[in-house]
């Protein structure tokens, strides 16, 4: 018999529940947001609560990856078109990898599932990791993303909670639907991703017929120091194909590694998969005219307003010689950027930038970048003055004088690179605090739009999958999920209620979530003076 929590538990008054604390025993007053400079500003280094939480999470498993454990990889190359759409790429970025035509930049790509362990089936309903390491002449560039272009949460401080809710129950050791929907029902920003994942898009047919995306918002910077916000996308030349739950079950009955087999055999027979690399671009500002924040990775930029612009192509043409040495020891990080590509203040990106590389230092070791699969190409050989550490085998000779392993020095050794002609500098101003985005209308709107744009068979599959899940959840969680779906789209909510055996009228009668704005509340558009936002009431208010 399947375990369910006691149905009264979600309704217990807050006063009867223990207080969440840090590992030092400090009460946690806000577990929803990083400390940042204003609502849209960069995260601060003194995010101790987040750093303690995420670094502990990075170390929860050894040696298998905590997430993305089940994966496969392939070698290939990237070629830039030299243009972004119909304009020279140099208009937007000084990154040579995106400007120089006729250059084949070596790449290694690792595809993966997210939640399951190393031997879990590749038919799982799960986002797929799509991590690309480009070994450019200016050093490595890692573009670490997923297949679905968005994510469940928009603030990195929630990542350990999300993964814990989606991973097996620590008591039953099973993935329990009620745990997933308990988290989601209290996180409306996840509705958009849930609508994708529970549709056939949640089970790609294989890795070759699958989209990829950087998910986070980055910046392109040109040689004048001008920045634009950018989203990165991989569009498969093979087309996109997904599976229904029944098709996936049929495959899983005789093969738990079908996608790995498909990729390996395609490359071996010379049927090299290819993707077109595209970007979406918008100006580097707040965009108050939008109902979502461009830095919010739970949202897609509408392609009718921000079209996909071709930039280059990627071809995979060689399988690894050794799965462990290459695929399993390959290590990616969102902070691995080249000049001309920069960080935005996307709070998931800022948190991932610490977490990903910290995970690799723990999982593979402090010298993981010395491994051939991770090391930059010879043209960009690493010279760091960093020394020793576990499993060090490369000696960084420090240039002309081997005695000098520090900088600056007048006796030789390494020196700083000349700065660009025009440096990119970002104006940052605001009260340091914990902020959640005030633009939440599209938490529901984009999920509803996605439901309406699915084909009939995709909507049918989505509703069936959600109904099957919600029947296994306690009534308060199922009612709240129907309430959410109804606010996304009335037909969406009604059909899920019918499939799950839920009283729609009872669900609709629920009040909004405590502390969350009503789904259809109008957003007040901020005003601007001399390029700076007036101090918002949220900034002036006491920190929670």
TrEMBL record:
Annotated segments matching region Disordered: 1-40, 509-544
Physiological role: Decomposes hydrogen peroxide into water and oxygen; serves to protect cells from the toxic effects of hydrogen peroxide.
Organism whose genome encodes this protein: Pseudoduganella flava
Domain of life: Bacteria
Protein name per the record: Catalase
Residues reported in the UniProt entry to bind heme: 356
Membership in a protein family: Belongs to the catalase family.
CDD domains, per database record: catalase_clade_1
């Amino acid at each position: 018999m399947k375990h369910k929590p006691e149905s009264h538990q979600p309704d217990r008054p807050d006063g009867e529940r223990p207080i969440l604390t840090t590992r030092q025993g400090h009460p946690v007053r806000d577990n929803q947001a990083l400390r940042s400079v204003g609502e849209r500003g960069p995260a601060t280094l003194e995010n101790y609560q987040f750093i303690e939480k995420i670094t502990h999470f990075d170390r929860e498993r050894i040696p298998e990856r905590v997430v993305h454990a089940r994966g496969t990889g392939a070698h290939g190359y990237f070629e830039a078109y030299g243009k972004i759409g119909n304009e020279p790429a140099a208009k937007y970025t000084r990154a040579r990898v995106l400007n120089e035509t006729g250059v084949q930049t070596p790449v290694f790509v690792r595809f993966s599932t997210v939640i399951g362990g190393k031997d879990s089936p590749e038919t799982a309903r799960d986002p797929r990791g799509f991590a690309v390491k480009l070994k450019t002449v200016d050093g490595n560039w890692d573009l670490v993303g997923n297949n679905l272009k968005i994510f469940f949460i928009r603030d990195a401080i929630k990542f350990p909670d999300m993964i814990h809710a989606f991973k097996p129950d620590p008591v039953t050791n099973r993935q329990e639907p009620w745990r997933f929907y308990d988290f989601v029902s209290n996180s409306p920003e996840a509705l958009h991703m849930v609508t994708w994942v529970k549709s056939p898009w949640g089970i790609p047919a294989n890795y070759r017929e699958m989209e990829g995306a950087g998910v986070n918002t980055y910046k392109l910077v040109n040689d004048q120091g001008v920045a634009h916000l950018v989203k990165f996308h991989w569009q498969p030349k093979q087309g996109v194909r997904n599976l229904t739950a029944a098709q996936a079950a049929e495959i899983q009955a005789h093969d738990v590694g079908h996608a790995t087999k498909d990729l390996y055999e395609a490359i071996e027979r010379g049927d090299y998969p290819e993707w077109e690399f595209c970007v979406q671009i918008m100006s580097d500002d707040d965009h108050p005219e939008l109902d979502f924040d461009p830095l919010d990775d739970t949202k897609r930029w509408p392609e009718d307003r921000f079209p996909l612009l071709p930039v280059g192509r990627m071809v995979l043409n060689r399988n690894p010689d050794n799965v462990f040495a290459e695929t399993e020891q390959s290590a990616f990080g969102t902070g691995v950027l080249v000049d001309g590509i920069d960080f935005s203040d996307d709070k998931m990106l800022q948190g991932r930038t610490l977490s990903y590389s910290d995970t690799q230092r723990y999982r593979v070791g402090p010298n993981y970048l010395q491994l051939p699969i991770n090391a930059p190409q010879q043209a960009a050989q690493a010279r760091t003055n960093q020394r020793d550490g576990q499993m060090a085998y490369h000696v960084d000779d420090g240039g002309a004088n081997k005695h000098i392993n520090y900088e600056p020095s007048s006796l030789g050794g390494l020196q700083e690179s000349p700065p660009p002609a025009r440096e990119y500098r970002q104006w940052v101003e605001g009260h340091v605090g914990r902020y959640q985005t005030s633009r939440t209308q599209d938490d529901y709107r984009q999920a509803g739009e996605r439901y309406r744009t699915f084909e009939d068979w995709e909507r049918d599959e989505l509703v069936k999958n959600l109904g099957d899940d919600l029947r296994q959840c306690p009534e308060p969680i199922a009612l709240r999920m129907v309430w959410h779906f109804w606010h996304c789209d009335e037909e969406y909510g009604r059909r899920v209620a019918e499939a799950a055996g839920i009283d729609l009228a009872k669900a609709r009668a629920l009040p909004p979530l405590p502390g969350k704005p009503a789904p259809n509340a109008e957003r007040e558009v901020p005003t601007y003076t001399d390029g700076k936002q007036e101090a918002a009431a949220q900034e002036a208010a006491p920190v929670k």
